[in-house]
Write a structure and sequence with these properties.
The complex is a heterodimer of chains A (400) and B (405). Chain A is globular and about 65 Å long. Chain A is built from 14 helices and 13 strands. Chain A is α/β, with parallel strands linked by helices. Chain A folds into 2 domains: 4-30 and 280-398, Aspartate Aminotransferase, domain 1, CATH 3.90.1150; 40-278, 3-Layer(aba) Sandwich (Aspartate Aminotransferase, domain 2). Chain A has a 7-stranded mixed sheet, with helices on both faces. In chain A, α7 (181-191) links the parallel β5 (163-167) and β6 (196-200). In chain B, α6 runs parallel beside α7 and α9 crosses α10 (303-310). With 405 residues, chain B is of the alpha/beta class. Chain B has 2 domains: 7-174, VC0802-like; 184-402, 3-Layer(aba) Sandwich (Rossmann fold). The chains are: A alpha/beta (400), B alpha/beta (405).
Amino acid sequence: MLFLPLFIPLFHQDTGHLFGGFVLEAYFDMSATTPVCPQAVQAVNDCLTSCYGNPSSLHIKGMEAQEAVTAARKTLAKALACDAKEILFASSATECNNLALRGLVQAYPRKGKRIVASAVEHPSVARVLEELEKDGYDVIRIPPRKDARFYPEDFSRAVTADTVLVSCMLVNNETGVILPVGDIARASREVKADLFVHCDAVQGLFKTPFTVRTLGADLVTVSGHKVYAPKGVGALYVRKGVRLHPQTIGGGQENGIRSGTEPVPLIAAFGAAVQHGMDNREEDLAAVREVSDYLRNGLAQLPGVALHFPQEITVPHIISVSVQGVRSEIMLHHLESQGVYVSSGSACSKGAQSTVLRTWGLADATADQTLRISMGYTNTLQQAQALLDGVRSGIERIRR
Amino acid sequence: MENGLQEIILIKTGEIALKGLNKGSFEMVLVKNIKRRLKALGSFEITKAQSTLYIKSRENGCDMEEAVARIANIFGIAAFSRAVVCEKDFADICRKGVPYLRGALKAAQTFKVVAKRSDKSFAMNSPQICTEFGAVLLEAYPHLRVDVNHPDVTVVVEIRDFGAYIHAGRIQGAGGMPIGTSGKAMLLLSGGIDSPVAGYMMAKRGLELSAVHFVSPPYTSPRALLKVEELCEAMSRYCGRIRFYCVPFTEIQEAIRDHCPSDLFTIIMRRMMYRLAQRAASREEALALCTGESVAQVASQTLSAIVCTDAVCEMPVFRPVIGMDKTEIVDLARKIGTFEISIQPYEDCCTVFTPKHPKTRPTLVEVEQAESAFDFGPLLEKAVAETTVKTISFGQAEPAVSSRM
C-alpha cells in the first residue's frame, strides 16, 4: 500500500506531522482543490494495475474498463438524479463549461442571439461568453443587488424572445454565495418557454442540496477535484434531447460529443469520491458547519476583520473575509509559514485581481485585503484555531 | 549530416589570441567551457591548431544546429564558422562544397569566393582557387552573380594543414573572455531587469558568477524566489553554472522598520544587503560584488546613496550598467532572454516597507547614526546561518542546502 503515507496526514484527525517538527497542517483552500479521498485513491490504483483496458476494445479487458466507466456514470447520475445516459465525462469542469456553452449555441443557431448570465461566473464561463459576444451574441450580465442577493426577476426581465440560453452558477467560487438557479430558470422560462438553462454547479456539489430538476437546468457542470477525486476529470449533465455540437472530434467516445479515450482511472475515482460524498453527505455537512461556525465567530472578534456575506446566503464551506490594512497576499504567506493554507481571491488565476468581488460592491482596497477560507469535512476545530491564531499574529506583525 | 558530409565548427578566439604567456591557460578554460556546454549533445572532439579551435562530432546524428546555437553564447569566442570538411583536392572540394553551400546560396543573389591557403604545398594558389571554385558555383547555381565588393554571401575556402574547409562566412560570437579566467564575483540578484544584465556584462569579461538573493516571507512570495531561480537559469546559458545563495531577510527588514527613520529605510536595508553579500562572497571565494545599479535610476541609486552603501564594502563593487539608460538595459535584457522573466509581477524584498519619501541625499554620518539605534549584529549572524545555497545550471537545479557561511 504505497500511497498510504501520502494521504494519512490529510485524513488523520491530528493532521500533518510534517517537516519533522510537528507543524500542524491546516489546509483551508478546499475550493481551489481538495485532497484525494482514500476511496478515490483505491479506485485509481485498481484501474492502473488491473483494469487498464481501453473501453472501446471488444475483448474482455475493454469490457472491464467500460464497466468501470459505466459504474461511475451511474454514480454521478444518482448524485444528480438523472439518467446515466445523460452524463458525459471530460477532462475538467472548464472543458465541460466550454462544451456546454459553445456546443449549445452552435447546435441551435436559430434559437436566438441573446444569452443571459450572472455577472459573477467563473472564467471558464465568463471568458467563453466574451468570445460569443465577438461572434455576435448579445450577453446580458446580471449583478447582485445591494443586499448581495440575486433575484430571479432581474434575470427574467433580461430574457427576450431572442434568448437562447440562461447560464447561472449555483455557488460562487470566491464568495460562497448561493444563487437561486431553480427560481431563475423558472422565471426565465415564463418569458420564453423553450430557452436552455446551463448551471455551473462545481462549487455546489455536496455543499448545497440540488438535483438537475430543482435547478431546472438542461446542462449542469460538476468537477472531480472539488469533491475529493483527482484533478483531470469533470462531468456534464446533458438533458435527454438536448443537442451539443462537439468541440473535440475523433473516435466518437461519449456519444460522439467528446472524443478521446476515457481516462478510466480518473473517471472511476470520480465515481468513488461521489459515492463517498453521497454516503456521508449529512455527517460531512455537519462537520463543515461546526468548523465554519467556529471560524465565523472567531474571525468576527478579531480587530479590523470583516466577514463579507451573511451566513444564510452562502454555503458554510466558503468564508470571504477581509483584514483591514493587510494585503491578502502577505497574510496568505504569513499563514503559510504557520502551516495554514488559504487563498487570496480565486486560486485559478494565480492571484490575478478579482473583478467578481467588485461586482458585489467591494472597494478595490477591500478586495485587495480579501481572503477566501474554504473548507471540507477533513478540517478540524484544532485547525480552525490554528487559522484564527495565524490571522491574529499576522495582524500584529503586518499591520503597521 | 544526412548527406554524408562531415561538418566542423571553426572557432576564432579573438582577444585570447592577443595574450602572452597565459594564452595557453585561457584556451584550456575555453575548451573546458565548450566541452561542458556541448556534453549533452553528444561526443565532440576539440583540437587546436593555427590559433583556431576545431570542433568535430565523433558520432553521426549530433544536433549541429543546437551546437552552433550554444557556441554562439560562449564568452571568449570572437567569431566562428560552420564548415564542411574536404580532402585537400580540388575535385573533392567541388564535390562536397557545391551541395553543402546550397542552403546559403539559394537564398542569395550575389557572392564571392575567398581562399586562405596556409598550407602552401597545395597545388593551386589562392587567386586560382577563387576563380576556379567561383566558376564551379556559378555553373551549379546559375541565378547567382559575382560581386566582390558587397556580396550577399562570402564563400570561404580554407586550405589548412589537416584538410580543406568550406563555409559561407563567419558568424559573430559572444566575444569577451572565457568564464572563469578572471576570477569570481558575487552578483546581487533582485529579480528586476537590471541585475541579470549586470551579471551578463561582468561574465562577458571572464568572471565566474555566484548570485545572492534576499527573501522576506511572508512579504515576498515563494513564486518571487522561483522567478529569480529562473533568471539564474536563463543567465547560466551565458555565464555557466551559478552558485545561488538565498538569504532570509525578513527580520532585518522588520528591525529596520521598527528602529530606524523611515526615510532612511532603503539605504540602511541596502547596507545590510551588502554586508550579507560580502559574507556570501568570502564563503564562495569571490573577490568582488556586482550589482545592477544605474546612477539616478531610483532614490537609493543617487551618488550620495551609493557613497553610503559603499562605505560598508571591503571589496570592490562592479556596477557595469551604472552609466546606462533604462531603455539600453532593457534592450540588452531582451537580447539575453531575461526581460520576460524579470517582468513577472511578484513583489521582491526591495519593495517591502519602502518609504513614500526616501532620502535622496543621505549623509554617511546620519545613516551610521540611524543604524546604531539597534544592534543588527545578531540578526545578521542569524541570516548568515539560515542562508541556503544551491548550484543552478542550464536545464537543471539541485535542491538547496544550508550554506554554513
